[in-house]
């Protein structure tokens, strides 16, 4: 058991290291395959022993071995989160889906692990560089569509639920497109960017109806709280652009884990 957990954690760290490359390169319009990793500051090729997840960052004291400039906290953080995600989906995710029987008890947690990897990439690219690469969005959308259709085909998902998810996806795309036009007209900045619009149907299919409502509500709630805090501390002004993708993802995660409770609590309040 411990060996498996350790192995998965290390696997996750290695994947996290690769995700850092994907996050940087797809945000800068480069292919994420081929070519050696270079220091983003001095452009020197990073040697393999300076590129060991987590450990190298600690050994080098968070500085490049050549130019001594600081290495972003993004690198060890993404590695650590990915390592923890691998372990989490094994320990908790497998338990959650164990009643489904094989092969779904394995397919489900693996699917959600891959989804969490996509969400982590999108979170970081938007938070760091203000873009959601189209290819990443497309990959996530195709994965989610394929998964939902497969689940319905195998009888694990009600066709009616799939239909409602699709309606929710269309409504959400329209809603975001209108918001995009309004914020550009009124404030002269993209509140909801094109990347958010392309991302939204995948989130609707992931969460389904009515959980997507909670996801979007939480995204706006968390987003406005963070925006107010940033403005209080003078980091952002009213006109500044704040990436909305990270909040969409935080909202989605909140709805996935606590969506039912929040929905019941809210419906209880209305009675
Ligand atoms: Zn360097």
Supply database-style keywords:
271 residues; binds zinc ion; mainly alpha; 0% strand; 2 domains; 9 helices
Radius of gyration: 20 Å
Secondary-structure element sequence? HHHHHHHHH
Ends apart, CA distance between termini: 48 Å
Query: How many extended strands?
Result: 0
The best one-word shape is globular
Mind sketching the topology for me?
Blueprint: H1 2-27, H2 55-59, H3 74-96, H4 104-129, H5 134-153, H6 159-187, H7 194-207, H8 211-232, H9 245-270
Zinc ion binds at residues 39, 41-42, 44, 64, 66-67, 69.
Short account of what is shown:
By secondary structure, this protein is mostly helical. The chain contains 9 helices and no strands. Bound molecules: zinc ion.
Structure in words:
With 271 residues, this protein is mainly alpha-helical. The chain has 2 domains: 1-129, no CATH class; 132-271, no CATH class. The chain is built from 9 helices and no strands. It has helices at residues 2-27, 55-59, 74-96, 104-129, 134-153, 159-187, 194-207, 211-232, 245-270. The longest helix has 29 residues, at 159-187. The protein binds zinc ion. Zinc ion is lined by residues 39, 41-42, 44, 64, 66-67, 69. Zinc ion (ZN) binds at residues 39, 41-42, 44, 64, 66-67, 69.
